[in-house]
Amino acid sequence: MPVIRHSSARRRTALALAVAGLAAGATTGAGPAAAQPKAAPAPAAECSAAYRIEQKLTTGTTWRMCWRYHKEAGLVLEHISYQPPAEARPVKVLATARLGQIHVPYDDGRNEYSDLTQAGFGQGLMDLAPGECPGGTIKTVRVPDAWDPSRENVKGLCTTTRSRGHAYRMQGDTANKVFQKQGKDLLVYTVNQVGWYEYITEWRFQDDGTITMNVGATGTLAPEDYDAGDGRGWPIGKGAKDYATSHSHNVFWRLNFGLDGSSKGKVEQYDSKVSSPAGGRPAPTNRTTRTEVVRELAGDARNMRWWRVVSATGKNKDGHARSYEIVPGPSAKYPGRGYTKHDVYFTEYDKCEQFASDNLPDCGAGHGKSVDKWVDGQVLEHPVVWVNIGFHHIARDEDQQPMPVHWQGLSIAPRDVTAMNPLTPAELADQNGHRE
Ligand SMILES: [Cu+2]
């Protein structure tokens, strides 16, 4: 972010503070996250109560985690565990999860920003109005090394629940018996302002064990970007005027898995190949192959390709290794930089490797500054997963005003974490595997 946009961010921050003052009467009181009963096995005290998020959803699944706030990366979630109704104890999923960068290159080649490390993403944490955390709890966040001392404590972290629609539906043996469940999610989110944009960083913890992470860009288009005179923009004023310069938002997530409490994990890639009918078969065939990703990898999404991280230690009650599958959302991959050329990077854990581009810590001479440089042949024992989801933003008239949220992100979905559907009703609990 150039200096000019920095100053606009600061100006707007003061405004936001005034608005927040009006909402200051809103308490961080009883929402579902606070009100829910403290159920049986107490989680390990990995953090103090103020930094703990624990939510038992109405469908019986409990999510537990700790949160903290990083001055550049913003919200960091740690020690994330999942306990579906039939599990006696929490299953650890992630040791750490957070954003790894938001890279914003403009189509005219004149500007390129690393929003987390250069543009004050973490510093731009916004106060939330009570109405934007419906039914939930807004926690106060201390922003480390706050540039603006009056903005050190921000009512900026919402935890709440939301209905998801059908978790499943199945017609029973008789016409009047329908097994159906309406899914419920825990949502955890912050809003961070960068220049004229506001990014919603949303984490959705589903009662079926899926974690969906999205960044939503909203706020307003930067007025100084209305200058695309070289055919690289879209007119958003009246007639052939006010061409907003097109740009990309390449968002990285950094996921440090800790399945079953162990940092040791394996990565697998699956590919399927469909062939024409042959050998007297009436239909095409499909062969799926597994490739063990033994060493660090810069991976590219492809039709019928997927990856999973497999626990080296934990098994479910069927004796199958627990794993989480990576399910990227739609992505417009930006080939302009080495670190944006690939959809996913699996790197061996190195605590110095913190940001997908413009890595801030000094990791010593010759240590690359971006994630693509860290893929250098190391054996994966403790894999860190970096997922790159790009959005090419060609503005449209509807982007004024305010700009509607445009979302981008991914899910990680449990694969063999439980032996059956984690929300299986008691009547169907014996239906595991073949049945007559
Ligand atoms: Cu944009």
TrEMBL record:
List, for all copies, the residue spans of the domain called Copper amine oxidase catalytic. 49-422
Question: Which residues are modified to 2',4',5'-topaquinone?
Answer: Y197
In this protein, the active site sits at D115 (proton acceptor), Y197 (schiff-base intermediate with substrate)
The region annotated as signal peptide is: 1-35
Keyword check for Oxidoreductase: yes
> Keyword Metal-binding, does the record have it?
yes
Please give the name of this protein: Amine oxidase
- Organism taxonomic ancestry: Bacteria, Bacillati, Actinomycetota, Actinomycetes, Kitasatosporales
